[in-house]
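input
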Amino acid sequence: MTRDYDVIVCGAGPAGACAAYETATAGLNTLIIEKRTLPRYKTCGGGVPLTVEADLPKLVPDAFVEATVTHLRHTWNFADPHLAAINPDSAQPQMSLWMVQRSVFDNALTERAVAAGAELRDGLSVRAVEPEGDHRVRVTTTDGDVYHARHIIGGDGANGPIARCADLRKTRLLAIALEAEIPHEWGVGHETLRPEIGHLEYAVRKGYGWVFPKAHHLSVGAGMFGARSDDGRGEARKDELARWVTGYLDALDVPYDPKDIEYHGHPLPLWNGSEPVEAWNGRLLLAGDAAGMVNPLFGDGISYACRSGALAGQTIAVGKSARWTTILAEEFAASHDASGKIARFFYQFPSVCYKMGVKRPNSTRTAARLISGDLKFDAVIDRLPWSNLMAKSKKPAW
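output
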């Protein structure tokens, strides 16, 4: 079977689904190819800033939001706790973090794109992508079908094939995360285990741990930044992160059976500076995790996937796809570059940063503003409590 489209989007995650919504809304004949059958499970903490709603027109939050976090409880080695409101003293604008299940959230985004006119083929994997003539792209799937399009958008995540097909993003900076979903009945465990409170632990080596509330369970995980997947330490790192997960459960008095814990590991492709994310004169574009859009300090990627995906679709719709690398850099590079500089210091000296920064009265509010995009990292990098120390410190290796 051979089919022709204006745009083929690979991946039905936030980046791909948001890109497809924009191209379909613009009247472009759009196909979404997703390797798994939707809805599908996706390992992810599932924290999304409320402000992402502005990037998701025609989407009803009640359909996918399981909890709304308004407070964060920070700890160092599960002690020295600091509980802070995201909106202290009714600060404006009001902010919060939505907690979502990616199976539900991603499916809602994809259904929105389909309602806008996109076609979906799930349960189908891409085998090859190659330029065809001067203005087309040829996509071959694993079942032997061939598709043609004027543009292809790679929204297929950290390990997707689209970047490799175009010889893009050959050097990647990764965070490695391990997570488990623990069934939970509200009212059981530590007094701060509440659906409006998220928990963050900073003594994890070069990373942090988290406990995020969902409707009927807790997402409990830990991650390390700057790790290499090919350094031979994968199993040792997994064991170390697993100890932090069970340590968090113990610290919060969450009942569990170690034999019942199912761990899910996944890479987070961190922003590592502006790099080419477009090929073949604008016929192929990368967005979201495929483009390395994960924030280097917080490790959050959903909102950046939504924004970059939508922007990729809009860029194609207005005929500027050959400028995609520049357009993406103009939108994100200054803030993400500053975030990377902060992250390198923060994860080298986490105890200092916890005492000097995290526990300060306004730090949680500032972090929420940064995550939401209301405040940019380059606007705060010189005003951090440890800015002078950071300026004197040599850049450490991840």
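quick obs: The longest strand covers residues 173-183.
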